[in-house]
Amino acid sequence: MPNGLVTASYIGATVLFILALGGLSHQETARRGNLYGMLGMGIALVATILGVVTDNYDILIGALLVGGTRRPRAGATSTGCSAWGSRSSRRSSASSPTTTAF
Is this prediction's pTM over 0.70? Predict the structure, then answer.
């Protein structure tokens, strides 16, 4: 892939990342923002793999295999951090004091 095309791909990916940040700032446009972010990352990945990484495909494939084989532990939270606690450990709104206005 020629250097000019790689550079143009990176500029396009950058624009899509900026649009993704703008789209994620509002709930109504969050889906579109996610789409822009995914497209930008896909373009950047393809440009990097086809344009920049020419001599080290074996290292790239090895890293993809190692990174893609990790499976989540049983009982792991979706964020990967159990420090937040479970929902059952939080106080419910029924047990908190309330103020009633007359």
Answer: no
